[in-house]
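Readers of this paper often ask what the protein records in our data store actually look like. Below, we set out a record of this kind in full and without editing:
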Amino acid sequence: MDLQLEQRLAEQDRKLDKIYVSIEKMRKYFFWTMIITIATIVIPILALIVVIPWFLGVITNAYNIQ
């Protein structure tokens, strides 16, 4: 009985190690997905904050007739 129990525990340890490796890969995948998603949303918003005032200044100067 003890031999069977030790074999089952060893097999469970191997399976847990495989699960841990798989979970770490998923964690890294989700982390980089989050970083890329944030970058594709935040960078354009920051660019618009800078570009819109500049563009409005150019347009108002172009149509400023004196």
In short: The two ends are 100 Å apart (CA to CA).
